[in-house]
Amino acid sequence: MKILHTSDWHLGRTLYGRSRYDEFDALLTWLADTIDREQVDALLVAGDLFDSTTPSHRAQTLYYQFLGRVALSSTCRHVVVIAGNHDSPSFLNAPQALLRALHVHVVGAVSDDPADEVLLLRRRDGTPELLVCAVPYLRDRDVRVAEAGESQADKDQKLLDGLRNHYATVAAIAEQRCRELGGAIPCIAMGHLFTAGGETVEGDGVRDLYVGSLAHLPAGTLPTSFDYLALGHLHVPQKVRSSEVMRYSGSPLPMGFGEARQAKSLCLVALTDGRVAVSLIPVPVFQRLEYIQGDWQTIATTIQALRANGSQAW
Fold it and tell me: Around Cβ 170, how many Cβ atoms within 10 Å?
C-alpha cells in the first residue's frame, strides 16, 4: 500500500486579516493531483482540518469538494480524518455515516468504546488490508476526572497518565484484532498531540493543548507496536525521537511569518511485505512570504529590491 500522511490544514485561517482561500484551494487541488500521480491508496489527515470550530461556508466547501474528488475520481480507496484541537468534534462527526459510504472515515471525538477508534480498512474485494488506530485530539475531560483537593502536579500527572492509557488501550485492541486476522495485516496509528521535545517556531500558531499544563507527552510512552505513527499538531515537519516511522507531517502551508523560510512536505508511506519506507513529498509555495529583519536601512533596501523584481510576496 501507499499511504499519504498530512495534517494541520487550518482551512479558513487568515494572516493579519488577509484571506487565504486561494492558497487553500490551490493546496487541495495540488494534493488531489498528487494522490493520483503517486497512486496513493489511503490518505490520513491527522487533525486541525479547520482553523476554527465554526468554519466558514467557503472553508467547508473546499473541504467537501476535496473529499468528493478524492473519494469518487481518484486512486485513493480510503480517507481517514481525525479531529485536532482547532476542530469541532460534533461538526466533523455530523456527516460521519454519509462519508463512510464514500470510504471516508471520520473520528471527531472519543466514544464510550475505544474500539470505535480501531478501523479495519478493506480492499475492493472485501479482504482486510489495513488497521488504523484513529485517535482524535483527547480533551482533558476525555482522559481525566477532576477531584477535590488536587494540586496542579496531581492534575498534570493524571492528564499524562490518561493520555498514555488511552493510546495503550487502543493499541491493545488493535493487536487483538490483528491476531484474529492472522497477524499479516499492517497497523498504523494516528494522533493529535504534543510530544516532549517537539520542535516549534515563533509565530506558528501552535497552541498548548491543555490549560495549566504543557502536557507534552514523552514519546517513549507511546506504544511501539504500530508500523507507522502519523501525528498532527506541530507545524514543523519532523521525526519523533529520530524514528523514521514516527512523524509529524507538519502544516502544508506556512501558518505565519515564522514559517516563511520553512520547507513544507507530506509523508508518503510505502508498506511492502512487512517493510515500511517513508519519503517526503515537497509542497509547492502557493503564496510566498518574506520575513525581513535588521535595521531600517536593511529593511527598506530589501523591500525596494522585492518591488523592483516584481515580487508578489507578502
Answer: 22
